[in-house]
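User: Sequence in, structure out. Go.
Assistant: Echoing your sequence, followed by the structure tokens.
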Amino acid sequence: MNLLNPMNPTIVEWHQYRVWVIGASSGIGAETARLLLAKGARVALSARNAKGLDDISAGQHNALSVVLDITQHDTVIAARDQILRAWEGIDLILVVAGGYGEMRADNFELALANRLIDLNLRGTMHCLDAALPVLIKQGKGAIGIVASVAGYSGLPRAMAYGATKAALINLTECLYFDLRPRGIGVYLINPGFVETPLTADNDFPMPAIISATTAAKALIEGVERGEFHIHFPKRFTNWLRFARLLPYRAYFALLHKVTGL
């Protein structure tokens, strides 16, 4: 591997590129789908919210709405098969769907923890089970998985949620080892705070929060450049990347000072 080359193939032209966005009815997924459609890509939009998908795909001849629930394996497989019948292949799969919930040790909720595991981790595994055979058979294409900066290291209020995102980071790194030698691209996407329905109820300051449209632009630009690790906004994400390199004593002291928690 040449250390100066992009870690994935670059993309110059999206025209007729076949993209499956899983989690496309709101937030980053919805804005990513809109931007890709504007660039001329063919976009399959998937989520549980059929109306949300139809609102985005209305009037878009390159859009295909395919309802699924990532926690229900059979619906993911059925959605994949529907897309393949329409397109005969998939060039890029973006797994954006997921869930969020605050939790600390003094209000641990097993039901919430299990729901986040089902959505963020097991749901992503369902998507991989649908996507990997297609990509490997094609010998080309790419997959991107949205994790979170909360997966870099432990953060206050992120118990369970952060653990699922840390697992996704590890999972995507493992995928890169196995898929890039086969000619398949892999993208690890780690957003910071983004204005979405998932963050709307947060009652604490969210540093460097950005709009879903800004996040989607950063995501697409990272894919176009062939980056493996796509993270944004960098003024916040790079700070967290540095913090996780500190000795634990310094890390805990710094996060306590910054958050007051």
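User: And one key feature?
Assistant: The chain has a mean pLDDT of 94.
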